[in-house]
Design a protein that fits this description.
It is a single chain. The chain is of the alpha/beta class. The model has no long low-confidence stretch (mean pLDDT 98). It contains 14 helices and 10 strands. Helices cover 43% and strands 14% of the residues. The protein is globular and about 65 Å long. A 6-stranded mixed sheet has the order 1-2-10-7-8-9, with helices on both faces. It has a 4-stranded parallel sheet with strand order 5-4-3-6. The structure holds the ligand Cc1ncc(COP(=O)(O)O)c(/C=C/C(=O)C(=O)O)c1O. The site of the ligand Cc1ncc(COP(=O)(O)O)c(/C=C/C(=O)C(=O)O)c1O has 22 residues, from helix 3, helix 8 and helix 12.
Length: 354
């Protein structure tokens, strides 16, 4: 019996040699009883991808992507990132012993993610523009300098991330009716859809869940395409949201994500920053699940879809919560009352506790 970790599924992954691995995957699947009851849902689950080595689901793509870089004899890896991809690339490049170059949108990356990219030794460049421009630049850089590009345009990233769906099926013991993911570049929703398609081909499962994508209201190109039944996604020029991880106007995997949603009878919805931050608090205080804002969007989206009567209360729903709370401490400090500071005596302590 193989442990429930990402490489349990090695026969479905492209790496032939020894992978560059930090024991990623095997993240918890929590039944959210209290929050589910509040939302009118009996079977609401959270797959906590913040419990990966670098604190986000990106580790799944990077263990495969960096392993492939080594297998292909690449010397340097690079990416543009809203933060978690750069943190994960720095971690896995360090494990592999090769240099990493990461491009970040200056002033719009959560503190924890910058700390990781720096401490794990990546060359961290902050671009005075948004993520979409950083992605264009790193693409040109890789072509002109022969670096290995590890954004989710790289199919090996999606190969690793498809294991989220495999683990959900193995942990739930069945296919959920719906899988909900926050959507930025739309790689993750596409990857999970691809993996479950492979499980169907292999006869492990006999049906697909409804793939559901949630975006931030100020950065919702995929939602507009789905709700407007458009043939393709029209990029947002100036995406804006407090959930900086999904502050992406031109999702590179848009076409795959549209297919994933449409072929499975899924849907897409957007949530406001206020709804995202309220759900981040609810997840932490009602379920003990600590996630960064973008991750809370998936559960905030389900709350909204329930309120709009767009989902059946009996559905078995898995919300993928994608990054750890510690990634974005500044947003937490801004949202919460500060600690109560007192003199170090019992009287003062008792006076503030009454
Ligand atoms: C916490 C968190 N939640 C959701 C997403 C969206 O996933 P995709 O729809 O597959 O992009 C991201 C994406 C982050 C980056 O795109 C990056 O790090 O450059 C994230 O960090």
């Amino acid at each position: 019996r193989r442990p429930l970790k990402l490489w349990r599924y090695r026969e479905l992954l492209p790496v032939t040699g020894e992978p560059v691995s930090l024991q990623e995957g095997g993240t918890p699947l929590y039944h959210m009883k209290r929050l589910g009851e509040e939302l009118g849902l009996k079977h609401l689950y959270a797959k906590h991808e913040g419990m990966n080595p670098s604190g986000s689901f990106k580790d799944r793509g990077m263990t495969v992507g960096v392993s492939m870089a080594m297998q292909l004899g690449m010397k340097t890896v690079a990416c543009a990132s809203t933060g978690n991809t750069s943190a994960s690339l720095a971690v896995y490049a360090a494990k592999a012993g090769i240099p990493a170059i990461v491009l970040l949108p200056a002033g719009n990356v959560a503190l924890g993610k910058v700390a990781q990219a720096l401490m794990h030794g990546a060359k961290v460049i902050a671009i005075r523009d948004n993520f979409d421009r950083a992605l264009e630049m790193v693409h040109d850089l890789c072509i002109s300098e022969g670096l290995y590009l590890l954004n989710s345009v790289n199919p090996y990233r999606l190969e690793g991330q498809k294991t989220i769906g495999f683990e959900i099926v193995d942990q739930l013991g069945d296919v959920p009716d719906r899988i909900v993911l926050p959507v930025g570049n739309a790689g993750n929703i596409s990857a999970v859809h691809k993996g479950l398609g492979e499980f169907i081909e292999l006869g492990f499962i006999d049906r697909m869940p409804m793939m559901t994508g949630i975006q931030a209201a100020g950065s919702q190109p995929l939602v507009e395409a789905i709700m407007g039944n458009l043939p393709e996604v029209i990029p947002f020029k100036t995406p804006e949201t407090v959930a900086t991880a999904i502050r992406i106007g031109a999702p590179v995997n848009a076409e795959k994500a549209l297919r994933a949603i449409r072929e499975t009878g899924g849907t897409a919805a957007s949530v406001t920053d206020e709804e995202i931050l309220a759900m981040q608090r609810d997840l932490a205080r009602k379920e003990g699940i600590g996630v960064e804002p973008a991750s809370a969007a998936s559960v905030a989206g389900i709350k909204k879809l329930m309120e709009e009567g767009r989902i059946d209360p009996d559905e078995r729903i898995v919300c993928v919560v994608t990054g750890h709370l510690l990634k974005d401490p500044e947003t937490v400090i801004r949202q919460c009352d500060p600690p109560i500071e007192i003199d170090a005596d019992i009287q003062s302590l008792l006076s503030v506790l009454r």
